[in-house]
Amino acid sequence: MHRVKSFYSCQSCGYQSPKWLGRCPSCLSWNTLVEEREEKTGHLSIVNSQPPLPLEDLSREEKERIRTGIGEFDRVLGGGIVPGGVVLIGGDPGIGKSTLLMQAMDAVASRGGRVLYVSGEESQNQIRMRAERLSIRSKGFYVYTENLLEAILEEVRGLSPSILAIDSIQTIYTEKLSSTPGSIAQLREATARLIDLTKRLDIPLFLIGHVTKEGVIAGPKVLEHMVDTVLYFEGDRGYPYRILRASKNRFGSINEIGVFEMAERGLKEVKNPSSIFLSDRPEEASGSAVVASMEGTRPILVEVQALVSGSFFGVPARTVLGLDPKKVSLIVAVLEKKAELRVGSHDIFLKVSGGIKVDEPAVDLGIAGAIASNFMDRAIPPDTVVFGELGLTGEVRGVSQSEMRVREARKLGFKRCICPAETGRGLKEEGIEIIGVRNVKEFLHVLF
Ligand code: TYD
Ligand code: MG
Fold it and tell me: Is there a single domain that holds both residue 194 and residue 263?
């Protein structure tokens, strides 16, 4: 007789163990192992099986992408939705994932497409209320509130929509497995079968995924491996701005970001993020520096703010929002050693305004400039923009795409740009003075 074997699997990373453990040996989280039964789930092939072929005989058909017309969304996807592509969208609760997806699907439906939006977490009434708020009236926008995978697959076959969205994948379960809905086994099975069907029908599939406290998609890496594209929708709840970022994309670059603003009636595209992120900048105040940063192919100017104050405790505090704290420690050390700025024993608070995150070598000079400015209590002239990487010996290193950074700065009315000497040499742009610096001392000398 066939015995059903059971095992324990970690709900956060997918690790499997024959016995229960209090702590997952793989991801080190506590109390995440849950008993699951081994069940036959059948074979799933995600790509159609074909005999081996020489590389040159492979089909080269370029599938036409579906453009939603929401520029910020299409760009992050790499130029539109790929038929048969599977996109996972993660983000904190309440950040706007359902809103984004409904607006994108409506954009397709309004041009005659038929789209199916499956919700496993909201009632028809809640969805209708959101749709009204977003003025969604397209005839081809179908809504289905259901959690059972088999029922969903059935409807997809019947309706054959041009896009399928599942909100959220964690709420979908299959009757074939006895594990509880939301468990790793359920998640993996539901995702695999949805992908199998949509790849076969060549329709794009969007999955919304919940994120855990740590900010990764719940249930794990397993899910990220199965899909073609992983997007994160992020932002600070206190601000209206939202950023869509790709962390994996088989059909495009992962450097592009899309910027949106959450308004009364849905998400609006932000076509010129720089002017918004700089809009409330205090001029003539010490501790504020404007950096020309790049997000993918797009230059974005952001303001870095620093507050440096005497520390009352033995260990100085470092509070950093929107920047990498390790990078900040490093820059503080360079300022201390190479520019003789005694900031190391002070409390330092740093943030990027607008609630966005920047992580790029070129913001180094902005961080150094903001800290030095507040520490010395001297304002950086409001028409000055900086960019460049800072090395550990205090050298200012060249960065890429400097022309685009300078052009964006000039467009927004800046008159002076301080950048690495190496990049600055070949650079010329009318109406803006370009000052190349070789090290942190030179930088501070020309900054004020
Ligand atoms: P929602 O898309 O439900 O977020 P998620 O699916 O990521 O949990 O959006 C949640 C928030 O967005 C909600 O708190 C209200 C706000 N919101 C607006 O400000 N304007 C709008 O037009 C809509 C639809 C939502
Ligand atoms: Mg939602």
Answer: yes
| pLDDT tens readout for residues 383-435 | 999 999 999 999 999 999 999 999 999 988 899 999 999 988 888 888 999 99
- Nearest to 134, CA basis, from 267, 265, 270: 265
Q: What is the pLDDT of residues 13-28, one digit of tens each?
A: 778 888 999 998 988 8
Examine the domain organization and report whether 111 and 249 are in the same domain. Answer: yes
Same domain for 18 and 109, yes or no, is no
> In this structure, are 339 and 193 located in the same domain?
no
Ligand 1 mutation pick, 262, 265, 267, max ligand atoms within 8 A of CB: 262
Phi, psi of 273 (to 5 degrees): -60, -35
Q: Is 421 helix (H, G, I), strand (E, B) or coil?
A: helix
Question: What is the domain count for the chain?
Answer: 3
CA distance 193 to 186: 11
Please choose, from the candidates 376, 388, 397, 394, the residue with its C-alpha nearest in 3D space to the C-alpha of residue 334: 394
How would residue 330 be classed by pLDDT, with cut points 50, 70 and 90?
very high
User: What is the average per-residue pLDDT within 359-369?
Assistant: 95
* CATH number of residue 355's parent domain: 3.30.230.10
Count Cβ atoms below 10 Å from residue 257 Cβ, excluding itself.
Answer: 20
Q: Are residues 75 and 210 in the same domain?
A: yes
Q: How far apart are CA 260 and CA 356, in angstroms?
A: 12
Whether the pLDDT of residue 187 is over 60: the answer is: yes
Closest Cα partner for 224 from 255, 191, 254?
Answer: 191
Among the listed residues 448, 408, 98, 430, the one whose alpha carbon sits nearest the alpha carbon of residue 277: 408
Give the whole-angstrom CA distance, residue 62 versus residue 106: 25
Looking at the fold, whether 349 and 310 belong to one and the same domain comes out as yes
Ligand nearest to the CA of 89: 1
Residue with tokens 């009236």: 137
Q: Tell me, yes or no, whether 132 and 189 share the same domain.
A: yes
pLDDT at 114 over 70: yes
Terminus-to-terminus CA distance in the chain, angstroms?
Answer: 83
pTM: 0.80
Distance 92 CA to ligand 2 centre (A): 9
CA-to-CA distance for 180 and 6, rounded, in angstroms? 14
Q: State the pairing for strand pair 384-386/416-420.
A: parallel
SS3 395: strand
Q: From ligand 1's centre to the CA of 132, what distance in Å?
A: 13
| Beta pairing partners, 89 | 208, 231
246 and 318: one domain? no
Point out the ligand 1 atom lying closest to the alpha carbon of residue 102. Answer: 2
